[in-house]
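Supplementary Methods. Inverse-folding protocol.

Structures were first reduced to a discrete structure-token string of length 383. This string, shown here, constituted the complete conditioning input.
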């Protein structure tokens, strides 16, 4: 009856996706934390069914598909940590990009004998607001957005947002360091909306902190699920002399990565360590062109929240904002990063990172920024 009631409620509100499900090839290796890779749902569910001495159960709703080498794969890696380190039974449900399935999938999960129902997408606000109050005995997590806690009784909901502007500030600093010839860097955003432009604002400010003469070209394919469009936009940027690209566009960004590799340019990954993901899939040529990735550690945030709750230390009915200091965002300082940047350049990035953590550098955010303010910033760095 609860599910029927939920399905008769208001439709789904679509917000901007930072990184979503994918039409990209699935990874063919087991998922481990930080690698940005994923098993197929079938293999994963078989693993989950063998969990013993479970301390409870957690279900993750992926309103897309695993294999994005980014946001959803990071969430899946966090779920595997929950299983392996905390002893919970876990299940991951992939809905694909059909918005009509998202709320019903959340309702189906809540009908299960489950302790935690987790959604990891900015687009899951309305489904979460519709379903969570119907199951007050269950705990709901929303990662990368927040419900309106003043609009209803969401005392069983925990939300975590990420300071992607801080992480992108570091990405911009790396891009400016690497853009040694033209001084031009590029940005591909899924949609021209505040959550995506939050990446852009940080990216621009980080680049200017290293080189005040850096030029930034931003472009928006208007789609999160179209790698072909992402490649087209990447090609255009490369043809304009951009030396380093940064894509915050979900699976569309996978096409941008391909364009960068074809043009022998560096690119900065997003959400997960995308270099490690490509390397795990055997594509080392691509992996070596991903200088670093702006990590949005959604998997770590899921693990942290459940661990705190098991200890009775998680505050429900509230939201947290996780930045560099909280481990919510940061850079993938992997072997490629260490090879691409000189020791002196790495010290520059480390110094900037420390200043952000200490509050000496305050990174602006696109959230709440007026259109005029954003346009002024974009125009100020245009070639």
């Amino acid at each position: 009856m609860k599910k029927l009631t939920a399905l008769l409620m208001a439709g789904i509100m679509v917000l901007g996706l930072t990184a979503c499900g994918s039409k990209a090839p699935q990874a063919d290796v087991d998922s481990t934390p930080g690698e940005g890779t994923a098993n197929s749902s079938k293999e994963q569910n078989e693993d989950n069914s063998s969990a013993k001495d479970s301390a409870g159960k957690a279900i993750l709703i992926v309103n897309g598909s695993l294999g994005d080498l980014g946001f959803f794969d990071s969430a899946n890696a966090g779920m595997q940590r929950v299983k392996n380190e905390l002893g919970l039974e876990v299940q991951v449900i992939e809905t694909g990009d059909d918005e009509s399935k998202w709320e019903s999938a959340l309702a189906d999960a809540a009908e299960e004998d489950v302790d935690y129902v987790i959604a990891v997408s900015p687009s899951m606000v309305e489904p979460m607001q519709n379903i969570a109050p119907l199951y007050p005995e269950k705990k709901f997590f929303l990662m990368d957005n927040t419900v309106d806690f003043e609009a209803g009784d969401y005392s069983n909901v925990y939300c975590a947002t990420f300071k992607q502007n801080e992480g992108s500030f570091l990405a911009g600093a790396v891009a400016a360091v690497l853009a040694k010839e033209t001084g031009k860097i590029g940005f591909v955003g899924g949609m021209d909306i505040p959550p995506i432009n939050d990446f852009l604002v940080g990216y621009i400010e980080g680049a200017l902190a290293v080189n005040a003469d850096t030029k930034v070209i931003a472009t928006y394919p208007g789609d999160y699920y179209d790698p072909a469009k992402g490649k087209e936009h990447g090609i255009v940027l490369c043809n304009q002399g951009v030396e380093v690209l940064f894509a915050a566009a979900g699976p569309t960004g996978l096409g941008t990565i391909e364009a960068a590799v074809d043009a022998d340019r560096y690119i900065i990954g997003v959400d997960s360590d995308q270099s490690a993901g490509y390397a795990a899939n055997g594509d080392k040529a691509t992996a070596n062109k991903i200088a670093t990735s702006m990590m949005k550690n959604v998997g770590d945030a899921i693990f942290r929240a459940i661990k705190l709750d098991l200890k009775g230390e998680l505050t429900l009915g509230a939201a947290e904002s996780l930045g560099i200091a909280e481990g919510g965002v940061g850079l993938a300082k992997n072997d490629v990063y260490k090879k691409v940047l000189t020791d002196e350049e790495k010290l520059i990035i480390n110094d900037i990172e420390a200043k952000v953590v200490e509050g000496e550098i305050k990174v602006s955010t696109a959230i709440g920024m007026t259109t005029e303010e954003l346009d002024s910033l974009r125009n100020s760095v245009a070639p």
